[in-house]
Automatic annotation (TrEMBL):
This is 2-dehydropantoate 2-reductase. GO terms for biological process: pantothenate biosynthetic process. SUPFAM superfamilies: 6-phosphogluconate dehydrogenase C-terminal domain-like (SSF48179), NAD(P)-binding Rossmann-fold domains (SSF51735). It comes from Leifsonia tongyongensis. It catalyses: (R)-pantoate + NADP(+) = 2-dehydropantoate + NADPH + H(+). Belongs to the ketopantoate reductase family. GO terms for molecular function: 2-dehydropantoate 2-reductase activity; NADP binding.
Length: 333
């Protein structure tokens, strides 16, 4: 199948390399040094799903019409990336692999003639260096397109992508986006401190802050009437349990997330943006919780404080010590 991957960074590069390895005709978009490296030595995949060098066609924009496309940019870049490809994407299934709550709706509005499918990656990947990506935690990709039974496009993507990585279609994609937003509560602390997700969750004080921001986010979602979708054993009842538990008990959920990540250090996608001097997605992660709280007329002070600290690191380029994070946020717990 002719497959286009728009924004072949950590996630898109992994998807492109795996689909190339299984025999598809893959074209990717990339820029700068990353594009030069893919063109000269190929797109190199390593880590949990094995090694492969994909000699794929690469340019700043797709050069030919694919039969299936993946948009794998960060949330803040997706609209621009889609607009550059509107004509090529018309009429085909387009998979939006993105964290946050808005990716699928935004793409569907920009591409009224395409069958847009949302994808939530529970696996983790890192951009190591130009031309090189690595899977740090293999796991499942959840697919859907709103609420209700999977569409034909979702089933097609489940078949094509499911041949190279574990995939599951869901009939509560909106609820699953919310559950993924809860999983992404682990992203802010690495971006603030420069530590891996596992290191931040191993630190008792930082873990309690992550637990408190998770609990606050779950409470906001419940107030908004969300029914969480089930992702990898994280279910609506478990998240409701977090909402009503003391932090010392609720921390079992971040601890489980840490265990699932395994031992390979996972910086998370937000710290990776910081390391490359790029804007982060934080306004679409903890920021989405703060926005939803504001719409409900309630406060989400811990999520707001984490957003503020991530923006501070983006602007100064200096990580914040765990001690300062604890001093800043402890009064809010
Ligand atoms: N990394 C991970 O482990 C996970 C990430 N996710 C989510 O997946 C999505 C992708 O994340 P990730 O792969 O980490 O991000 P990356 O930053 O590694 O990759 C995004 C790519 O998009 C490119 N890009 C940016 N703007 C455009 C544009 N206008 N046109 C074409 N390409 C563009 C970037 O290029 P350039 O660098 O030149 O700007 C970059 O190569 C995010 O929503 C993230 O939250 C979900 C689960 C896990
Ligand atoms: C799944 C997880 C938490 C992997 O790190 C992720 O979504 C991210 O890094 O953005």
């Amino acid at each position: 199948m002719r497959i286009g991957v728009i924004g072949a960074g950590a996630i898109g590069g992994t998807i492109a390399a795996l689909l190339d390895r299984s025999g598809h005709d893959v074209e990717v978009t990339a820029r700068g040094e990353h594009l030069a490296a893919i063109r000269s030595t190929g797109l190199k995949l390593s880590g949990g799903w094995g090694t492969h060098t994909a000699h794929v066609a690469a340019a700043e924009t797709l050069q030919r019409a694919p039969e299936l496309a993946f948009v794998t940019t960060k949330a803040q870049d997706a609209a621009a990336a889609i607009r550059e490809h509107t004509a090529l994407l018309a009429g085909i299934p387009v998979v939006i692999v993105q964290n946050g709550l808005t990716g699928l709706d935004e793409a569907s509005a920009l591409l009224p003639d395409s069958d847009c499918v949302g994808a939530l990656a529970l696996w983790a990947a890192s951009y190591l260096s130009p031309g090189s990506v690595s899977v740090t935690t293999p796991s499942t990709t959840y697919l859907g397109s709103g609420d209700g039974p999977p569409t034909a496009a979702t089933l097609l993507v489940a078949r094509v992508l499911g041949a190279v990585m574990p995939c599951q279609a869901t009939d509560n994609f909106t609820g699953c986006q919310w559950t993924k937003l809860m999983v992404n509560q682990i992203n802010a602390m690495p971006a603030i401190t420069g530590l891996s997700a596992q290191e931040t969750l191993a630190d008792r004080h930082l873990r309690l802050i992550v637990t408190a921001s998770l609990r606050e986010a779950v409470r906001v979602a419940i107030s908004a009437g969300v029914h969480f979708g089930s992702l990898q054993g994280l279910t609506d009842p478990i998240l409701r349990f977090v909402a009503r538990s003391p932090l010392a008990v609720a921390q079992v959920v971040p601890l489980l997330m840490k265990r699932r990540m395994g031992r390979t250090p996972n910086p998370g996608s937000t710290l990776q943006s910081i390391r490359r001097g790029q804007p982060t997605e934080i306004d679409y992660l903890n920021g989405a919780v703060v926005d939803q709280a504001a719409r409900l007329g309630i406060h989400a002070p811990i999520n707001a404080a984490l957003v503020g600290l991530v923006h501070r690191v983006e602007h100064t380029g200096e990580f914040v010590t765990p001690a300062e994070v604890i001093t800043t946020i402890a009064p809010l717990l």
